[in-house]
Amino acid sequence: MLQTALHFSHTLLRDVIHEGDCVVDATMGNGHDTAFLAELVGPRGLVYAFDVQEQALANTEKKLIELGYQARVTLFQQGHEMIDTQLSTETSLRAAIFNLGYLPKGDKQIITKPDTTEQALDALLPRLLAKGRIILVVYYGHFGGQAELKLVQEYCQQLPQEMYNVLTYQFINQKNNPPILFCIEKK
Amino acid sequence: MLQTALHFSHTLLRDVIHEGDCVVDATMGNGHDTAFLAELVGPRGLVYAFDVQEQALANTEKKLIELGYQARVTLFQQGHEMIDTQLSTETSLRAAIFNLGYLPKGDKQIITKPDTTEQALDALLPRLLAKGRIILVVYYGHFGGQAELKLVQEYCQQLPQEMYNVLTYQFINQKNNPPILFCIEKK
Q1: B17, B36, B102, B132: which one has the fewest Cβ atoms less than 10 Å from its Cβ?
Q2: Min CA distance, A98 vs chain B (Å)?
């Protein structure tokens, strides 16, 4: 079976992340990707994970403790627009992941916003290592989702091809708005 | 590095094709994909390969002889609109590949056409096995290319999601019109 966008996001991360790497989970949510990243970076690596919602941090922390991964993850109860403030400009990142939309099973009123997504991307790109990847899995079926999708599309399309490859991976015959994956790879 | 559309087409084929399978190369060209498919299907398998151009058959035959794969390939000097005529309705196909555009290093006046592409797809879909894949790598920078891209997009989008998954894989920040990959997977 063809991989879903979510599965393919993990394949693309697994391809580039090695033990000891620093990476960012820009949308912690229930901590699913945070835990996945923590496994990939190993005991010498570091995951910075961001979310505004207290429930997201509680769920993620619980998951990390169960897996024994707490020491390799730093959780911020802040939106990903704070990446630039929280991460030193010297930090070299191998990868970052965004799941844009709302927290699954959470409050559908609390959604990610185009302007903070843009701020986060502006902070991540200069810190990204060569061959590093930023992946955005964009859910856009909810109110406000189309505006965010448009921002991501336009932001990605204008990235200079001399410095970045930008890929989209998308199912086009489905009526239930499956997420679209964007992958920005630094050359 | 992110796989090019061409590389990813091979990954998607390798995932599903096994020894003994029957598959179609709808656009033989210089025989690159024909040889790749012949390797995957092995000595008990069969590749049906189509091209209108004599030079394509000559190049492909030479390549197959060098590799010792002649016995597992049937070459047709006919366009892929003849698939329905040449293949029995009983033929079960695991996969098919199209490289739409023109023969690399060949006559740029001889291009693939939307109407024959549609006829070929209409013939392939009912012969495709469950979990089988039809892959189209669409070059669209040349004269007539946009019309073909539009046909493929519209054809794919209207395929019922109960029966098919249709994926696109595309680089979106490049000015040299890199090809777009479409993958139709039968459920």
Answers
A1: B36
A2: 18
Instruction: Tell me what ipTM this predicted complex has.
Output: 0.94
Residues A100 and A138: their CA atoms lie apart, in Å, by: 5
Residues B42, B38: Cα–Cα separation, whole Å: 6
In B, minimum Cα distance to A175 occurs at B161
| % of chain B surpassing 70 pLDDT | 95
What is the predicted pLDDT for the residue at A111?
Answer: 73
Choose among A160, A175, A183: nearest Cβ to B161.
A175
Q: Which two tokens stand for residue A52?
A: 């505004």
Distance CA B9, CA B20 (A): 20
pTM listed for this prediction: 0.95
- Predicted pLDDT of residue B81: 95
pLDDT in tens, B82-119: 999 999 999 999 999 999 986 555 666 677 778 899 99
Closest alpha carbon within chain A to B131:
A1
Q: A140 by DSSP, 3-state: which?
A: coil
Count of CB pairs separated by less than 8 Å, A with B: 71
pLDDT tens digits, B121-149? 999 999 999 999 999 999 988 888 899 99
Distance from CA of B7 to the nearest CA of A (A): 14
Residue A85, class by beta-carbon neighbours within 10 Å (0-12 exposed, 13-18 middle, 19+ buried)? exposed
- Which chain B residue shows the shortest CA-CA distance from A167? B171
Q: Are A161 and B172 in contact (CB < 8 Å)?
A: no
